[in-house]
Amino acid sequence: MIAVALSRGHIEILQFLRDRTAVVFTFFFPALLLLLFGTIFGSESSAAGVAASRIFTASMIAYGVLNTAFVTMGSGLALDREDGTLKRLRGTPMPAWAYLIGKALLVTLLSVAEAAVLIGVGVLVFDMPLPPAGHWVTFAWIFLLSVIACSLLGVAVSALVKNARNAGAILNVPVVALQFVSGVFIHPMSQLPDWLEKVASLFPVRWMAQGFRYVFLPPEAEAQEIGGSWDLGMVAMVLGVWCVIGLVLCLWTFRWSSREK
């Protein structure tokens, strides 16, 4: 069955690459936003003396992961359900987990590529230095937990999409909203009302962005975070909890056909 899952993943990747619109929007829209924000605010520096372009680069990786994992997974699953792909696959020996692993391989590859593009923009355009070797280990586990949590939530939310043509618009509403309140587009988060900070802290994006800032920003930038700490323990705990929540929601909401109850 592992071979079946890998084969499905290969099919998903080929199908995605054939859709040029999806490729361009997925990879270049976050990079375009980074270029715009970094260029407009790049000459500014935080209280810690860190260039705004560097802060945007680190934070935008969280947006890139959310865009590729949550939106791609959710909209892709909604489309497969609507056009009958899932129903046809149900009549084959392929179990649901093999199909989902195939989707997971796609979003993982896309997320890695997206992160590479954003880091490349930061390094080549905004002269962002790469972090020391030890920080890449932290990057790896934050990135992995982020992809898992966002992918599982994408699977769960896809059940709410009634029309696959509207999936992108529907799924992007919470994505864009969370960027503004989670320290991605607006940093430091102390600029937000206290109640909005507390709401943002319930969701994974705030912690994803904070973790990625730890990886790419200098130690003095820690003072700009809420509580004056990177709080990596909380980053791991919140992302882990959302992985569990996402898994439970997947098991509860996944169905092969839009007509299933």
Automatic annotation (TrEMBL):
Segments passing through the bilayer: 21-43, 55-79, 100-126, 138-161, 168-186, 232-254
Listed name of the protein: Transport permease protein
Subcellular location field: Cell membrane; Membrane
Main location: membrane
Keywords: Antibiotic resistance, Cell membrane, Membrane, Transmembrane, Transmembrane helix, Transport
InterPro entries associated with the record: ABC2_TM, ABC2_TM_bact-type, ABC_2_transport, Nod_factor_ABC_transporter
Protein family per UniProt: Belongs to the ABC-2 integral membrane protein family.
Bilayer topology: Multi-pass membrane protein
One Pfam family this sequence matches: ABC2_membrane
Domain spans labelled ABC transmembrane type-2: 21-257
Source organism: Actinoplanes flavus
